[in-house]
Design a protein that fits this description.
About 75% of the residues lie in helices and about 0% in strands. The longest helix is centred in the C-terminal third of the chain and has 30 residues. Helix 4 packs parallel to helix 6 and helix 9 packs antiparallel against helix 10. It contains 26 helices and no strands. It has about 750 residues and is mostly helical.
């Protein structure tokens, strides 16, 4: 029974780890709720009034969520600096409360400074956010000069409670976060293998759903890999360890995605296209070669399940158990003589399982140190030797230096956003005063919020729409909750804590849900302050709509960044990063000097993630421009396909000095030259918006033609080199495919 209980608990832990990588959302919610609960406890023991309880709760929430730095020392400094900023903000608010014009002018200047401070990094962002939110808090509770001493004490207790919770009760260290992210990566890897198993067994009616699950699993695994990449520097002991973990995560991600593509090919009468794994609605392979209930297919199912267990099993569990035999069997598929008799496509799946098993082994060694080798087979020993050789090569490599040029003046994003939000807030103050002289600041808050983490007019429009929708639903919930809770103070505060946790837990998933919980929580706070009425919550809807409208107007008329311009800028960045990775990888595979290829590949991934986020206004379900929406989705999917092949080339090129089956081949330069040229043509077209003078997409003999054996003077390629050429071919096809939706001219093939 204990074993069953432990297994069930392990499944729960892995599901939670997979749904919330690094437990980042859970930690943020728990830390905020604990801070608020602590300050409420202290203030209630001091018999503080309800307004002071509300002020303490809001100050604790702000001082907790505003600080986003990863190092504990920097967090402590920022929290210490935030206290005088908060005291100064509440003091100025109380002093200017009776001076309408001066107070409004200062509020606008404060908003400008709070947004502009984002250019100084996480600390500037935190201090600006604290200054704005505490000023808003003082307006919410109606702070006066006579009440300042009590408010100083309340805010001080709130900051102390936040510090105690952050550093003692719910601590978070970079090392601990990275460790949880690695567990989340394993859990999502296992989920992806489960989805691939379902793809193997899916019938014609279930094929589309199975493909959707594989696409989602692939995207979620990639998301976790990016999160790990952002935490490696702070969460590892030295640069060598960070580079080693980065390499093993990249290997595992590429191996998992390639396994899905090989399964797709095995299910089809033709070679599966990588685009199918990235574009929902892409044509489903017509063939149905699998599933068949023969011995080979049953072995394939068994080994996929074994791979899933190998990913999930704790370190050390494979020693002295049947799992060591399973590991050895999977790694044995990297040797040609161990492959079962089957078609080439099915044998490729077994090879993919072997490479995935090697990636899992490498990840374990990198993260947990040397493993028990007593039960190794010769195939497993060879895999370990390859990994050891790669580790030595990684430890001896030199770090590449990168320099980023920063834009200045009004072209700097933080300056532009500060000007826009100041203008929008001015409009919101004027309009809000007409709606209500008491609640006008709700319009300002909405205008402020829609500018956070947005970069174009379209993004602000979508965010404003989501906030308004969440507010309307929250008002409906708030009306019902106020009637149920009445004036039961501690019941209301308990619900406030619940909603705050839900707000932070759902924020990265759905802005509408977050807005819903915020508004429902505010309805309860109004009830506690004895200012609740249905008209107040309806006024909140009006102020929210006004604030969102002011934000959109300011973004559209003041230093506007249109969605097309923003996406074109980011598309140009993605293409530049794709050029860097492709050119460096092909050069190294052709015998050139070594480069920091995985760093370049991650820069590409980050640029692509930024582009994907910026296209949300174009791909949102409510957009009336359906053709434009489909084009945006298709272009992003093609770029994700390009990024996958570029990641593979980068990972393979870094193996070149240590892997015996990979040899440099100067003939790859010509294939790489054509791809890089075509990316450059597309980039120039995107930048100039004009076909004149940007050249044409080159076409010609298929890169795959290099695979033909028996060509005079051409040696027969090994299987790994075949894969390199096939990935180059797919990358070439995807880049050429980008030209069509972007309207780039394509040259006629030379006969």
């Amino acid at each position: 029974m204990r074993a069953v209980g432990r297994a069930a608990w392990a499944r729960v832990r892995y599901r939670v780890a997979a749904s919330d990588p690094g437990l980042l959302r859970l930690t943020a919610g728990l830390r905020t709720v604990a801070s608020i609960a602590l300050v409420l406890t202290v203030l209630s023991l001091a018999r503080a009034s309800v307004p002071h309880l509300v002020a303490g709760a809001m100050a604790a929430m702000v001082s907790t969520f505003a600080i986003r730095e990863k190092q504990r020392g920097r967090q402590a400094v920022t929290l210490a600096l935030g206290l005088p900023v908060a005291l100064a903000s509440v003091s100025l608010s109380a002093l200017l409360n009776s001076r309408v014009v001066a107070g409004d002018v200062f509020f606008v200047l404060l908003i400008f400074g709070a947004v502009y401070s984002r250019r100084f990094g996480d600390r500037g962002t935190a201090l600006g956010l604290i200054g704005f939110q505490i000023y808003f808090l003082s307006l919410f509770v109606g702070a006066t000069v006579s009440a300042l001493p009590q408010l100083y004490g309340v805010i001080g207790i709130a900051f102390a409670s936040s510090a105690l919770v952050r550093f003692a009760l719910v601590p978070e260290t970079p090392t601990g976060t990275l460790d949880r992210l690695r567990r989340a990566f394993r859990a999502r890897f296992a989920q992806l293998v489960t989805a691939q198993l379902a793809l193997l067994d899916a019938g014609p009616d279930d094929m589309e759903k199975a493909l959707d699950d594989v696409r989602e699993g692939t995207a979620r695994l990639h998301e976790t890999a990016l999160l790990i990449q952002g935490r490696l520097e702070d969460g590892t002991s030295d640069e060598t360890v960070a580079r080693l973990v980065q390499r093993r995560i990249a290997d595992a991600e590429v191996a998992a995605e390639r396994l899905g593509l090989l399964l797709l090919t095995a299910r089809s009468a033709e070679r599966g296209h990588t685009l199918t794994l990235h574009l929902p609605g892409a044509p489903v392979p017509a063939g149905d070669l699998l599933p068949q209930r023969d011995e080979t297919t049953e072995t394939l199912r068994r080994d996929l399940e074994a791979l899933r267990l190998l990913v999930l099993r704790p370190v050390g569990a494979d020693s002295g158990t049947g799992l060591a035999h399973v590991r050895n069997r999977l790694l044995g598929y990297r040797e040609e003589e161990n492959l079962p008799p089957a078609s080439d496509a099915v044998q490729d799946v077994f090879r993919g399982i072997g490479e995935a098993g090697r990636a899992v082994l490498g990840l374990r060694i990198a993260v947990d140190g040397p493993q028990d080798e007593s039960e190794d087979t010769p195939a497993t020993t060879r895999s370990r030797e390859e990994l050891d050789a790669e580790d030595v090569a990684i430890a001896g490599s030199e770090e590449a230096e990168q320099e980023d040029a920063e834009r200045t003046g009004l072209r700097r994003p933080t300056t532009r956003a500060a000007v826009q939000v100041a203008v929008g807030s001015s409009l919101a103050i004027i309009g809000g005063e007409f709606l209500s002289s008491q609640r006008w600041y709700w319009a300002v808050l909405t205008c402020w919020i829609v500018f956070i983490n947005t970069s174009s007019t379209g993004e602000i429009l979508v965010k404003g729409y989501r906030r308004l929708l969440g507010t309307v639903l929250g008002v409906i919930a708030g009306i019902g909750l106020a009637g149920l809770v009445g004036h039961h103070t501690w019941t209301a505060f308990a619900l406030v804590l619940l909603f705050i946790f839900a707000m932070f837990y759902t924020a990265p998933l759905s802005y509408t849900l977050m807005s819903f919980f915020v508004t429902a929580m505010l309805g309860l706070l109004y009830t506690l302050l004895h200012t609740y009425s249905a008209s107040v919550l309806l006024l909140r809807i009006e102020e929210t709509a006004l604030g969102a409208a002011c934000g959109v107007v300011a973004a559209a008329l003041v230093l506007p960044v249109h969605t097309d311009r923003r996406t074109n800028e980011l598309l140009g960045t993605v293409l530049a990063r794709l050029t860097d990775v492709t050119e460096a990888a092909v050069d190294q595979l052709s015998g050139g000097a070594a480069a920091e290829l995985l760093d370049k590949a991650r820069d590409l991934d980050q640029a692509l993630a930024d582009l994907s986020a910026s296209t949300q206004p174009l791909t949102h379900p409510i957009t009336p421009l359906r053709a434009r929406r489909d084009t945006a989705r298709y272009v992003v999917a093609l770029l994700e396909t390009c990024a996958y092949h570029a990641r593979y080339l980068a990972a393979t090129a870094e193996l070149l000095p240590t892997h015996p089956s990979i040899a440099a081949d100067p003939r790859l330069r010509e294939a790489g030259r054509r791809i890089v040229h075509n990316i450059g043509v597309i980039s120039a077209h995107v930048s100039d918006g004009d076909d004149d003078g940007v050249g044409e997409i080159e076409t010609g003999p298929s890169i795959a033609s290099l695979l033909r054996p028996g060509t005079p003077g051409t040696p027969r390629y090994g299987r790994v080199t075949d894969r390199v050429l096939r990935h180059l071919q797919r990358l070439d096809e995807a880049v050429t495919g980008l030209a069509r939706p972007l309207g780039v001219p394509i040259a006629a093939p030379v006969k």
